[in-house]
Amino acid sequence: MSTNNLLVELFVEELPPKALKKLGESFAVVLADSLKAQGLAPADAVVTPYASPRRLAVHVTQVAAKAADQAVQQKLMPVSVGLDAAGNATPALLKRLAGLGAGPEAVAGLKRAPDGKAEALFFDSIKPGAALADGLQAALNESLSRLPIPKVMSYQLQTGEGEGFQPGWTSVNFVRPAHGLVALHGEAVVPVATLGLKSGRETQGHRFEAAVSPVVLKSADTYAEQMQAEGAVIPGFEARRAEIVRQLAAAAAAAGANLKPIDDEALLDEVTALVERPNVLIGRFDAAFLEVPQECLILTMKANQKYFPLLDTTPGHEGKLSNAFLLVSNISPADPSAVIGGNERVVRPRLADAKFFFDQDRKKTLQSRVEGLSKVVYHGKLGTQGERAERVRAISHAIVQQWSLGTVPFTVDAQDHFAVLDSKAQQAAMLAKTDLLTDMVGEFPELQGIMGGYYARHEGLRDGVAIAIEDHYKPRFAGDSLPRNHTGTVVALADKLETLVGLFGIGQLPTGDKDPFALRRHALGVIRILIENKLPLALPALIAAVVPAFGELIKDPSEPLLAFFQDRLAVSLKEQGYSAQEVDAVLALSPQRLGDVPLRLAAVRAFAGLPEAASLAAANKRVGNILKKADGAVEARVDTGLLKEPAEATLFEALQAAAPKAAAAFEQGDYTGSLQALAVLKSPVDAFFDGVMVNAEDPALKANRLGLLATLHAAMNQVADISRLAA
Asked: Are 90 and 82 in contact (CB under 8 A)?
């Protein structure tokens, strides 16, 4: 059966830019999948999506004009129901056949086959393959109904000629008003209709720069070429994006040596969705604005104007903002000066606003804003931001105390360090949220913390405090950097733990995919800080220290919150490449110091590579099961006088030799050495289970053997529950 390539394009008014990429991908994939499901396109058909601000399109290869006929076998009814004693068709059978479009003559061709305990009649027929017009209509309807439209728009459509519409006006619901439909199979138009439109071969090019209007498409395969040559449009999203990247790099080089555009994938996608024919131009602003923190300038240029700020790459000045920026225009005039000048005039008041906010904010100290926090509601059940700041201050103090207690040896220098750290952390905690009351953060909430750091440095506060104020939200997202100093680390932990304990304490837990307070992100932030900084802090003790800061406002959420942390930690570790068995083995012991977890995982992985590992893991699992079935708790104690069998005496001697080495390595934090010291127990353990009956008739012998196994179990499971490694 001959095939041709297919093109479908829906021409619309400007689509929402942040949704365009997903709209284009969905339109293409769903339509193509429907054609494949109907047998009109093969599974290996090449699907090419197109999406620009004013069009959604798809090109599908190897599409048939008609799907192949299909042999269909249908079960009718049991033989005993369909045929009488003489073998003639019953009225029930004839009625069923008539419903399938067959007459009495079809009875002779029915097949009889077993169906469970009875025999049934089956009718073989040929189902005609779908014609392309019918199949494409169904595919188009499905594709449009399943578009991930962020917000549906209703508009009035004058009807009378569109298929399925009555003369007059009707309401249509779609993402934007549609004005044209193209459907080409090779060079032929496929007759389909939607949204009051009938398909044809004409479409519109660039709103201002198309060479011809309309663009009359010759065939499905000339779409991209004609749209660029005649319509002045790059219809493919990825092709247009790649062209913008190319032009950005060239324009940055032309703007000045060692300049590069800011790296922002979301901005690049949004700009790609705003233009049909990109033209990157260079603009500049007054260098005096560079006195304003560059984060403010960058944010206003990106968020409000969709510009690409240019950053310096000169050694020693890396990342410093220049006063040049790149704009992506949708037109390409011979003289672009008017476009550039217009954009420079537009951005100037935006930057002036940022400078005004910065200057005004610096007239008040952060300390003077603390009182104002008591007027800002944090949560209806948890009080104001002022009360929250007091809690974070108290929690910061508790964290420093626990940190100092976990530091060994605790020298005079360490004592002085923690005293200073406590002072800085409490000061930073009280000031950390004050920038919420500034004009700059009021205009740009994304800058909270960052502006607080700038204002703290302007006031001459201790540098550690300024950095802590700036960093206390970190890590803000996956892959973000951690706080840069100890003060920031303490305040970041305190801030996140206050949020988690407070919200868990009033029952505001995440459910399914709903996490309005980003508690999963806060938990992962705590986990990363504790692990990557290798802090000597126990998570249960930290949570216990946070709870008193809330007084009577909450119920103690320690149990569900620790389980929440355990779950987030397990997910995070598996995402980092650790196996489920390795993670389960380590987390089964609920290690309190998360900073030890990577070392324990490394030890488990090294142990699993030993030839003795599988046997010891299986034995450990067997020991655990025996101890669970024992009556009451089993004490890890052995009476050497009751070691009657040679195998149990040998195991005890081997354990006496290996256990102290394993324990010493464990105490020194050498978890790999601790586990590997137990490898020598393989043979004695195997011999014990081969030659010793644990459940002896003599109660004293049984208790002693259980005590030996309990001693073995304790020695083997200090680093991890190695029974979790058993297959």
From this structure: yes
